[in-house]
## 1
Amino acid sequence: MTHAHINEHSEPVRSNAARLKGFLVLVAVIGGAIYACIVGYMYLNQQSLLFKPAGELPDPGTVGLADVDVMSLPMSDGVMVTAWFAPAATPGAPTVLFFHGQGGNLGDRADRMREILNSGLGLFAPSYRGYPGSEGEPSELALIADGIQMFDRLDGQKLDIVLHGQSLGTAVAAAVAEQRPNARLLVLEAPFTASVDVAAERYPWLPVSALMKDQFATRDFMAHITVPTLIFHGARDETVPLHHGKALAAMAGDAAQIHIIPDGTHNDLWSHGLWGEVQKTLPQY
C-alpha cells in the first residue's frame, strides 16, 4: 500500500516537471530564433547602419561656397567620385583634404569649409563613393584607397596637405596619414579607436567583431603615424565617447596633442574653436 501511495503522488510531479522543461525549451528556442533574426538583420543591414548618405549634393554656391569648383574624378577602379575644390587664397598655404562624417552630404559641412577658405587655405573635399554626387558603394577599403589616390593627386601638384577627418572620416584620414607620412598635419575631429569598438559598446549583446565587415580600426596603426596630429574630442560626446580620443592620443605618443572640449559634443567642436587651434599649430605660410 505504501509503494502504491508513493507512485500516486510522484506521477503529477513528473508531469509538472516535464511540462516545465518543455516550456523552458520552447522559451529558449523562441529566444534563440529572435536573437538569430536580430543578428541576421544587423549583418545584412550593416552597410546602411554605418554609411548614411542623404539628400542631394547642392551646388557649392547655394551654400555660401561660390569660389568652390565641382570636380568629377575617376578612381583606380573606374568609379567616378565628386569632390569640391578651391585653391589656397594665400600663396604657399596648405590645402585641407577633408574627409566628412557618416551622414548626409558635403553640403552639410559648408560652414566648416567656409572657415577653412576664409583662413586662406585651400580645400579638397571628396564626397565618398555611394554618397550624393558620387558613384559606387562605400566600403572601408574603397574609401581609404580613394583617399590615398586623392592625396597623391594633390601631392603631385606640390601642395602641402593637411588631412582633416570628421568622425567616420577620421579613420580614412588616419589611414592616409599612416601611408603618406609627408602630410603637413593630421586633424582628427571626434575620432574612434575603431567603428567596431563603438558598435560593441552600443550592442554588447551582439558578436559585432564577427559580424562587421568594415571595422575601421584606427587603433591598429595609430602608433605608426609620424605626421603631427591634433585630436579634438568633446567631453559630452555621446556618439563616440571621450575615451576613444584619449586612447588614440596615448597610442600616438609624442606625435599627437589632444584637445578636450569640456562642453563639446559630437558635432559642435568647430563652434568651440577647433579651427582656431588648428591654425595656431600650422607654421606661418
Note: Residues 43 and 211 are 6 Å apart (CA to CA).
## 2
Amino acid sequence: MSEMLRMPAEQAHAAELAALAAGDVGRRPAGWALSPQAVVTYLMGGKAADGAVISPKYVGDKRLIETAVATLATDRALLLLGVPGTAKSWVSEHLAAAITGDSTMVIQCTSGTDENQVRYGWNYAQLLAHGPSREALVPTPLLRAMERGKLCRFEELTRMGSDVQDTLITVLSEKMMPIPELNDTVYAARGFNVIATANNRDKGVNELSSALKRRFNVVVLPLPDNAQQEVAIIVKRVGEMAQSLDLPEPKNVAEEVARVVAIFRELRAGSTEDGKVALKVPSGGLSTAEAIGVMVGGISQATFFNDGRLTPETLASNMIGAVVKDPVQDRAVLGEYLETVLKKRRGFEGYYASLTEML
C-alpha cells in the first residue's frame, strides 16, 4: 500500500492508462497521451485493446464526457458547471490525467486568490539581489502548464474575485502571458488548455464576466438521474475510499447507502419519493459528495468502535452533521421529517430512533 494518503489519478490508475495507450491507434491531438476515444473509455469504463478492464470513473451521460473531451481537443477552454457533488473536480482530475498524464497543475480559487497566484510570483531574495530575471520568477501552475503543453485546472473558479478571473482572458484568447517586468512573453506550447469547475449555489460566488464566459465551452454535470444511479456512484466511491484508508468494507454497505440516499434525496427535493408529502428543505445541498462523506465516516466509526458492524447508530451522527448546517432551521427541518415521514416507514426504524435520540 502506498504511503500517500491519496495518489493523483495518473498514479492510482497507471495500469489502466498504460493499457489504453499500448493499444490506442486513434488520432491524438498534439500533446495528448491518448486519443479522444481512449480518454472517453478511461472516464466511462470499458476494455483496452488487450482485454484489460477499465473501471468507470464517471457514472452518467457519455455524451457529456464526449463533449468535454472534444472541447479540450480545440483551443477553447472547458468549464464544468454543476451544483456541489456532481463530480466536477473528479472529472476534471481524470480528464487531465488521461489527456496529459499530469493532473497536479491545480489552482484552488478562493476569495483570497490574487493575480500573483494565477500569473506568476517572485522570489524576493533573488529579486532584491539581482533584479527581475527568469531565475527570480516563480511560475504558477498555469504558467508551468503553458510552458509544458499541459492542462491547468481551476477549482471553483467563481469563488475567485471577478478582477482576478479576468486575468485569464489574455491567456485563453491569445494563448500567451506577458511578463512586462522582463519585457518578455510566454507563449503556450501545443497541448495547453484550461479546465475550470464552478457552481452557482454556494455563498460567495462571483459571476464570470461575459468576456470570460465566451472563452469557455460550458458542460453542465447534473445530479444523478435516479436513486439507483446515485447509489451505484456512492457504493463505488465508498469502496475506493475505504480501500485507500485501509478500512474493511462492511457487507451491508449497499443497503445502508440506499437508505441514506433515500433520506437525502427526499430532503433535497422537498417532497417524499411518491410526491404525497411536501417537506421543508435544509439549508445545505445534501449532495452525492456529502452522502459519500457520511458513509465513509460511518464505516470508520463502525471499524473502530462497533466491531466492524455498520448500523444506523454509526451513521446517525454523520448524517446529522451533513443535514444540520444551521443549528436552528435545519434541526427543525430534520425533526419534522423524522416525525412525518421516517417514523412510519418500514426498514428505517433504526434511523428514526438514532436520529431522534441524537437530535
Note: The chain has 17 helices and eleven strands.
## 3
Amino acid sequence: MNLLRQHAEEQFAHELAELKRHDSGHLPPNWQLSPQSVVTYLMGGKLRNGFEVSSKYIGDRRLMEIAVATLTTDRALLLYGLPGTAKSWVSEHLAAAISGNSTLLIQGTAGTSEESIRYGWNYARLLAEGPSENALVATPMMKAMQTGKIARIEELTRIGSDVQDTLITILSEKTLPIPELNSEIQAVKGFNVIATANNRDKGVNELSGALKRRFNTVILPVPDSIAEEVAIVRQRVAGLASSLEIPAQAPALQEIQRIVRIFRELRNGVTEDGKTRLKTPSSTLSTAEAISVVNNGLALAAHFGDGKMNAHDLASGIIGAVIKDPVQDSVVWKEYLETVVKTRDDWKDIYRACREISR
C-alpha cells in the first residue's frame, strides 16, 4: 500500500530491528529496546557492526536521556516547549522504540471528552444487553494499560481542566475504574504516558497541581545555533520530499540557511550580528514552519518551475509564515525587508521576490 505517511515503527523498522538484534542492555518490562538503545535510536549513531542509525532528534542528548529514564519509572513524561520544537516527533519515536507502537494516541482539543480518555460505549449493544464488557469501547489509553505500552496525549493543555483530571487516578493508581461493571482495568508493566504541551497555550487550560505532580517535565528548546537548525530543516525536508515524491532537486544549502536566518532573526528580535533590533511578529516562526516553507518551495519549483528551487519559489511561503496578523505583522515584515534583507548584497534575489509579492 502506497501510504502518504508511515508510522515511525514502520518507516524505521530496519533500524529498530538492527538495534534490537545488537541490544545487550537491560530491558525494562515490555520494552522492545533497552533505554540506551532507545536514546541511540533517537540521537543516531553507529553500531558495532558499522550499521548507521539516523538521528531523529538533533539537540541535547541529555534531554533524551532524561525523557527515556522518566519512562522507566512510575512517572509520566510531559514534553513542553514552543510550537515546532519536535515534541510530537519525539513523542512518536519514543513510543515506537519503547513499545513498537506509536498509534495509541489521544489528540487533545477543546472538544476532547472524558470518554476519549477513559472508555466509551457501543450504544447499540448497551441498549440491547445493558452494561457489559462487550459493550465497552476501548480508548487508546485503555489499550495501552491492558498491553503494557505507551499512550500518547497531544496538546494536553488544549483539553478542559475537568477532563485533564481524569488522568490523575490513571497516573497515580495505575488503574482505570469502570463503575458500571463494578470492575477496573489495571495497568500491565510497561504502561506509561507521554503528553505534549506548548507554552503558547499557557493559561488556556492550566494543569492542576495534582496532575503536574504526576509528570516529569522535559522542556524542548528551540535549536541553539543556526547550524543546528539548518541541519534539522535539511534532514526533515529530505525525508518529506522523498515520501511525497516531489520531483525537484534537493534545495541548495544557501536557500535553507537564508530561511532559517530570517526566521531566527525575527523570532529573536535582533539580527544575527546583534547590531540591529527588530520588531517580532505574532507568529512563532518555528523550525517546523521553516520546513514547511522549504517543502512548499520545492513543490512550486517541481510543478511550476524548472525543478530547481529559487527565491521566487520561497517568497510566498516566507511571507505566509511571517504575516499571520495582516496589520501588525505586515508592518514588522516590511520593516525587516527594507532595513535588513535589502542591505545584504547576496540577498538581492529574495528581496526582489518578496517585494513583488508584498506590493
Note: Residues 18 and 227 are 30 Å apart (CA to CA).
